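agent: user wants the structure for Vitamin B12 dependent methionine synthase, activation domain from Clostridium grantii DSM 8605. delegating to structure tool.
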Amino acid sequence: MPIVKNYTCEPRKNIVFNSIDCFEDSPVYEYATEVFESLKDNLNEFLDLSMIYTNVEIAKEIEFHIPKCYNKLCLCFVTLGTKVLDKIQEYFEEDSYFEGMLLDSICDDILFQYSNKLAQHIKELAENNNQGVSKKISPGDDQYPMEYNKFIIDNLIEKEKLDINIGYTESYMIYPVKSLAFIYAQGDNIKSEKDHNCALCKNTDCKFREEKICH
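agent: tool returned. relaying tokens verbatim.
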């Protein structure tokens, strides 16, 4: 079921600037701030947000990673669409490399925020039905294979008759590029697991870290 057109997110300047190593003592900081504010004000022109989920039975190709206390899967997909990719490419073709790089980082931050919005939506629905959900299962992270992207997208296309163009490559990379696919397992009368914890995350080079690493 396609959902969620009423959520709004704004890019977080501190997160975005950290991702491109632009700090207050940088000689381009003031210029970067001007560009950031301009891009933020016009961001909706470039975004074609879709947040989609569907519920399916636990299939054999994925059950290895699903504890037996769960009996359903919620497959999720968030995309910013293709227009913003065209805009980024346009900046690079015009030699406006800084603008293109900054818009790219803004999109990464926005995509991360919207994926969290959808995750919260899924958890609230589950709790209203006396269900608990697992930690987020993200293809390519930890022990989860990239092939799970295929499982998610194939089921979404088959069940939801989507009017947007999503898919995956031969190596199971998803498109449009500014998209995320993930899974939550659901079970009756159990407590939800805590989701991602930046402080414990093993990706020490992540530019979008929200908390310091806990040693």
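agent: one observation worth passing along. The domain at 2-200 is CATH 3.40.109.40 (NADH Oxidase).
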